[in-house]
Amino acid sequence: LTSSPLLLLSVLSPCRYRAFTFGLTFLLYTSFHLSRKPISIVKVTHTDTDVSYREFTVLHWHINRDLLTLLGAMDYSFLCAYAVGMYLSGIIGERLPIRLYLTFGMLMSGLFTCLFGLGRIYNIHNLSFYIFVQVANGLVQTTGWPSVVTCIGNWFGKGRRGLIMGIWNSHTSVGNILGSLIAGYWVSSNWGLSFIVPGLVIAAMGVVCFLFLIEREYCSVTDDTILYTSGPSLDTVLTNLQTSFNTVQLSFCGLQLLLNGVIEFSLCLLFAKLVSYTFLFWLPLYITKAAHLDAKKAGELSTLFDVGGIVGGILAGVISDKLGKRATTCAVMLLLAAPTLYGFSMISEFGLGPTIGMLLVCGGLVNGPYALITTAVSADLGTHKSLKGNSRALSTVTAIIDGTGSVGAAIGPLLAGVLSSRGWNQVFYMLMAADFLALMLLLRLVTKELTSANVVKPRSGSTTVE
To answer: How does the record say this protein sits in the membrane (predicted)?
Structure first.
């Protein structure tokens, strides 16, 4: 169980294997986001007045209930479980082989995603069933992010980490785009398939992960080759899992105090992810209301937000690499994002052309800081010199940052469901306030970066400021 049967990968040049690992982890996490997107597309159909009575009877919802609030609660059940599970996932992920841990998570995620769609096909008339599936899926999906970031972070150094991870992190947007297109294809005819097909995709990628993924920890790297060595035995794996809750290699509190910036970046990500995930779960529905489009066209148009996110993530990585200032790069993008969100809420009512342009700009500014914090910043902190070379600690650091951010991801869609019933302007005011708070949380780190840029150490060892 701990040795890959495909020994064709046992001897590869370092550059080629790093490229292979880059592409493989990209595809693996693309499938995670691909499986999360369908619910945002399907909820557009559920709010269509022509089909509302039929869909309400399927889930035993009553017409006099606030549908948007119910759908917000559906999102919340997934995201709240994801946020809670992320902290535990980092601890467990430190002690298990990444390949096995990630494979298990992907197979289970495929199962629960398919179960949601099967509820439509078999006419399951119980809302608690769908809530249970969402909670279970949220828990198992927490295996993904700490695992792939640990894998990619250990294979690539700090030299051009911002650029490399900026490009790599586009898997989030690619997954959202593919998820929108797949779900949109069946949303009007049989929305159950909008979940079943992505579920099968992520399960299939879980098998690919088991056969091909090789961790840096179990490789002997030389100048010319990478030799794969056997991982721990099954008994060792089970022993590590059994002691996961008894001993903690890295204390959460100690780690946050030890690594300067973990607290600020974690809380900043909370508000940045609140904005990003509100768009992820509610943008197609907003477009149908503002641009008067059907569910399929709204889903296709919403992919432009993710296209902008790809560009924004890459730009954030390139700029932060060149300047050497991660916090400052995030702060500038957050500063520009708030007025852009207000502009989008106004311009989106004036036709398709302006809506397309603002979707691209908003996607770049909203997802740029989110992408930079969850990738390059997490990797920098997870490989901090104070960790004394503990490469497995990256999993815990990533889980702390992304787990805190996931709290915002859970709150955002829920608040959007409540506020949208009072008017979409209320939702955008909430998003702008979140961006402003994210910016405020980075001010100390920004000041430190700008101050350190002006410090010069003379030969005598004393410090002067230019």
So the answer is: Multi-pass membrane protein
Q: How far apart are CA 194 and CA 173, in angstroms?
A: 18
Q: pLDDT digits over 156-203, tens only? A: 766 667 788 888 988 988 998 898 888 888 877 788 898 999 999 999
Show Cβ contacts of residue 315 under 8 Å, excluding neighbours closer than 6 positions.
166, 364, 368
**Helices (DSSP H) in 156-220: which residue ranges?**
161-168, 171-186, 193-212
- Report CA dihedral (387, 393, 394, 399) to the nearest 10 degrees: -130
Q: Which residues of the chain have pLDDT under 50?
A: 1-11, 48-65, 218-234, 237-238, 240-251, 253-254, 256-257, 455-466
383 and 259 Cβ atoms separated by less than 8 Å: no
- In the three-class reduction of DSSP (H, G, I as helix; E, B as strand; rest coil), residue 106 is classed as helix
The set of residues, in sequence order, having a beta carbon less than 8 Å from that of 406 and lying 6+ positions away, is 79, 82, 83, 86, 273
Amino acid in position 69: T
- The tens digit of pLDDT for each residue in 120-139 reads 888 887 778 888 999 999 99
Whole-number Å distance between alpha carbons of 357 and 313: 17
Which DSSP symbol is given to 13?
-
- Computed from CA positions of residues 39, 40, 42, 44, in that sequence, does the dihedral angle turn out positive or negative? positive
Q: Give the Cα separation of 46 and 197 in Å (integer).
A: 19
